[in-house]
Here is the input.
Amino acid sequence: MLVTGGAGFIGSVTTLALLEAGHDVIVADDLSNSSKHAIDRVESLARESGAAGDLEFHELDARDDAALHDLFASGHITSVIHFAGLKAVGESVDKPLDYYRVNLGSTVSLVTAMRDHGVRDLVFSSSATVYGPEAQSPLREDAALSTSSPYGRTKLFIEQMLRDVAAAEPGWNIALLRYFNPIGAHPSGLIGEDPRGIPNNLMPYIMQVAVGRRDELVVFGDDYDTADGTCVRDYIHVLDLADGHVAALHAIDRFHGCQAVNLGTGTGHSVLEVLAAATAAVGKPLPFRLGARRPGDIAVTVADPSRAAALLGWSATRTLNDMCTDAWRWQSTNPFGYGD
Ligand code: UFG
Here is the structure.
C-alpha cells in the first residue's frame, strides 16, 4: 500500500502500525515538514518488533504526476492513505494559495493516479475543523459543515471532491477520517511530534516549556463557558489514531462510496486539565499564565465516536495520562525533535 506523508507525526506512527499489522508500505513524503530520521526509526522499531511488512521510502511530492505514475506502475499498490499536506491554521490565513496548491493539488494528482491504475481504496486525513462553530458537541458526522480558515476549507473541499469522485464511478471505497486532537508519541520515545518553529498546538508547546525551550505556556482564554473557563478538546493518543487507520483500511470494503468517520475518544479535557496531567507526567511545575482568547477558537469540540465503533470496530483506549507520559518520554529524550 501507499502512504503519503508517512514521515510526519501521524504518518510515521501509522506506518509502523501498518507494518506491524503485516502490510507492505511504500511511503511517499517530500520531507518539507518532516524528517527522514522518522522513517529510519520506524524501520528499526518494525525490525525489533518482528513486523511482517516491508517498508520502502520515496522522497517525492504528491503533486508530481510522473513520479506517482511510476510508483503505481510497479503494481504493488492496492490501497492508499493520504496524510501529506500543510496543516497550520494560522499559516493558512497568511498563505492561502500555498494551502490550496499543496492540499488540493496533491489530492487531485493522487486520486487521478489511483483512477488511472485501477486503485479504488482510499483513506483520507480530514479534520474536526470541518465542523462549524454552530455545530453542537458531541459532534456526529452528519453535523452541519463549515469552517473558518483556508486550511479548514481545503479539508472541506477535498471531502466534497472525494464524494464527487465516488459518485461519478462505482467501485470507490473512501474513508474520510476526521481527527480530533492527536497528541502523545510512540511509547518507545523514538517517534513523535517535531513541529518546526514555534508550536501552534497545545501539547508540543507544553512539552517545549518542559524541556526549557520556551519560558511559559500562555493559556488562551479562561472566560469560556466551560467548567474551568478554558477550552475543551477531545485529545486522542496518536497510537489510538494509528490503530484507527489500520481498522479503517481493514473495513474499507464496507465503505461502498465515500463516508466520513470521527476519530476521537468522546471525552473532553480543558486546557488546564491537560496542563495538570502534563505537569504530573513531567514531575515538575510548568510555568504558565492566563492570557487572551485566540481568535477563532470555540469553547468545546468533542467527538461522538459511535460511528467509528460501529463501522470500523475501533475505539480509543488510551488515557490523557498515557498521552502525557508518552509525549514527555519523546520530548525528554529528543529535546530538539529529530534535530534536522
Ligand atoms: N492553547 C493554549 N495555548 C497554546 C496553544 C493552544 O491555550 O499555546 C489552547 C487553544 O486555545 C485550544 C487548545 O489549547 O483551546 C487546543 O489548541 P490546539 O491548537 O492544540 O488545537 P485546536 O483544537 O485549536 O486545533 C486542532 C488541530 C487543527 C484543527 C483544529 C480544529 O490542531 O488542525 O483542531 O479542529 F484545525
